Amino acid sequence: MSATEVSSASAEFARRQHSPVQRLQHQLHGKPWLSPLFLLLVAFLAFYIATPTFLTASSMGILFQQTAVVAALAVGQTLVILTAGIDLSVGAIMVLSMMVMATLARDDGMPGIVALLIGVALATGAGLLNGLLVTRINLPPFIVTLGTLSIFTAIALLYSGGSSIQADRLPDTLNFLGEGFGIGEFRITWGIVVVILLYAVIGFVLSQTAWGRYVYAVGDDAESARLSGVPSMRILLGVYTVAGLIYGIAAWILIGRAGAATPNAAPDANLASITAVVIGGTSLFGGRGRIIGTLIGALIVQTFAFGLSQLGVDQQWRYLATGVLVIVAVAIDQWIRKVKA
Amino acid sequence: MSTTTSELEVAHGGVPAGKEHVYSQQPVLSARNIVITFGRVVGLDGVDLDLYPGEVLAVIGDNGAGKSTLIKCLTGAYVPDSGEIKLNGERVSFRRPQDARDAGIETVYQQLAVIPALDIASNLYLGREDRRKGPLGSVLRMLDKKGMEKRAGESVRNLGIQTIQNMGQAVETLSGGQRQAVAVARAAAFGSKVIVLDEPTAALGVKESGMVLDMVKQLRDKGLSVILISHNMPQVWDVADRIHIQRLGGRAGVITPETHDMGEGVAIMTGATKLSEDAP
C-alpha cells in the first residue's frame, strides 16, 4: 500500500458531503457552549416580548446579582465534573465556611479579614478532604460528597447553633461584596466583579496551562492520562482543593448578597450548580466542556426564574422548565459525543 | 569478543545473517530474571530479554503468556518484584511510566493511551508540554500552543502519514489507524532509544496495518530499537529482525525469521516443540 493511495482515499472521504445536521454536530462538538448561548438569547427575547421591563438595565443588574452565588459555586463544580466527578457538598461547604466567617467576626470578635481568611481556608480544607477521600481511599466522588454534604451541613448547624447573624453585626469586610456601584440604572456589586474574575482566571488556567489540559485528560480517560505521564492523582486532588477554595469565595459573596449569614441558606445550591454546569454543555462523563458554558448555564437558570416571577407565573413552572433543560442538555451532549470525522 | 558471541548463540538461538556486527554490541535494553506476581498469580516467572540497537524485536506468545506484562515491566507501568533491567548497560529501575519515558523508552500501549477529547497536538505533547518563552511562560505558565501544533505536524509528516492534516482535530474524530498513527508519532517524536508497540495493528484493517508496519520499519531505519508485540504472525515475519517467544510467563526462546518459519515459531509458542538451544 502506498502513501498516495491512502491520501487519495482520505481526500475522497473529505469530499463526501456532510449534511447540515452533521455540520451542526461538528460545530457543537468544538463549541459545546453554542447551544446554551442560543437558548439564553431566545429566553431573553421571549421574556422581553412578554414583559418589556425584563430587558431594562435595573432588571439586568438584579438578574446578575441573583446569579452570582450559583455562578461562583458552578466554577468549582465545573472543575470537578470535568474530571468525571460530581460534588454534592458545594452548598454545604459554602454554608459552613460562611457560618464560621460570620461567627468569628460577629460583634467585632475578630478582624473581618482574619475571619474571612479562616473561612476560605476552611472551605479549601473541606475540598482537600473530598479530594483525599476520592484519590487515596478510591471512593466514588458521588459517595464521598454525599457523605461530606451531611457532615458539613451538620457541623455548620452545630457550630452556629442554628441561628442567623444579620449583616449589621458583621464587619464591613464580610459585607463588602454586597456593595457596588451603578452605571446608570445598571447596578453592579463587587460580588459580580469577583465572579467575573473567577471565570476569567479559571478559564485561563483551563485553556492555556498544562494543568488545565490535564484536568480534561484525567476526566476523559484517567488510565490513558496516567500512561501518558499525567500525574492523575495529583490533578484530582488539586481540582477538589481548588473547588473548595472557590466555595469559600462563594460564601463571602453569599453574605453580601443575602445581607446575613443563615445556616439554612441556599438549600438548592447543590442542584443549581450542577444544573448550571450541565445546561452549559459540560459533559457529566468528564473531559468535555468550557467554563464559559457554565456561566451561560447559570444565567439561563436564573433568567427563567427571574423572567417567570416578573410575569407573575407560578414558580413551579421554573422548576419544570429547568428539569426539561437538564434532560435536553444531556441528550444533546450524548449526541455530540457520537461525532464522526 | 568470541566469548560474547558464543553466549549470544545460547541466549538467542540465532542472529540475522549479515548483521552479526549489531549483535556483538551491547544491548540497548536488557532484562534479566524479571519476576512479577499479582496476588497468587505469577505474571512473569524469571524472563530475560535483549534488545539491540536498530533492530525490531517481535515478542509473540499465546494469550496470557505474559507479553503485555513483560513490556509493562520494561516501561515502568508495572514494577517487577525482582530482576534486573539495564539500559545501555546501566542498571535502571522505573517506578512509573514517566521514569521510562525520561530515560528514552516510549510505549504505545494496546489501549493506545490517547485522550479522545483532546486534539492531536495536545495528545502528542501530553505530559511534556512546552511553555511560552518569557514571563508568559514562566510566570503565567502559558502553553506554547502554536509551537507545539507546528512541531506536532512535523512529527506526523516525518512518519509519512498523509491522512492527518489538521493537528487541531480531536482524536475521537480519527479512524482507528489514524489514532494509532498519532500514538506512534508521539512515541517516535520523543523516544530517543527504544519504542515499544503493543499490538499496534490488532484493531486495524489491512491498509491501515500496512501503514503502521511501514512506520515501524521507518523507526528502525532511523536507528531506533523497536519492541513489537503482535499476534499477527505474517506481520511479525515481515518486519521483525528477531522474535522473542514468550510462553507461560517465561521466555521459550528467541528465533529469527530466516532460521525458523511461522509454523515452527507457532509450535514453540504453543509448546509443541522446544527450542534446543534454550532447553535447560
Compact summary:
The complex is a heterodimer of chains A (341) and B (280). Chain A is mainly alpha-helical.
Structural account:
Chain A: This is ABC transporter permease. Chain A: Keywords: Cell membrane, Membrane, Transmembrane, Transmembrane helix. The complex is a heterodimer of chains A (341) and B (280). Chain A has helices at 3-15, 20-30, 34-50, 57-82, 90-105, 112-135, 141-160, 172-175, 190-208, 210-220, 222-227, 232-258, 269-279, 291-310, 316-337, and strands at 165-166, 180-183, 186-189, 260-261. The two termini of chain A are 23 Å apart. Chain A has one domain (31-336): ABC transporter involved in vitamin B12 uptake, BtuC (Orthogonal Bundle). Chain A contains 15 helices and four strands. In chain A, a hairpin with a 2-residue loop joins strand 2 (180-183) and strand 3. The longest helix of chain A is centred in the last third of the chain and has 27 residues, at 232-258. Residues 1-15 of chain A have low confidence and may be disordered. Chain A is mostly helical. Chain B is an alpha/beta fold. Chain B has one domain (2-278): Rossmann fold (3-Layer(aba) Sandwich), CATH 3.40.50.300. Chain B is 35% helix and 22% strand. In chain B, the strands form two sheets. Chain B has a six-stranded mixed beta sheet, sandwiched between helices. In chain B, helix 7 packs across helix 8 (176-190) and helix 8 (176-190) runs parallel beside helix 9 (206-221). The longest helix of chain B has 16 residues, at 206-221. The chains are: A mainly alpha (341), B alpha/beta (280). The A-B interface holds A 1, 3-7, 9-10, 29-30, 204, 208-211, 213, 216-217, 220-221, 223-230, 287-288, 337, 339-341 and B 77, 97-98, 101, 107, 109, 111-118, 122-123, 126-129, 131, 140-143, 145, 160, 162-163, 169-170, 172-175, 206-207, 210-211.
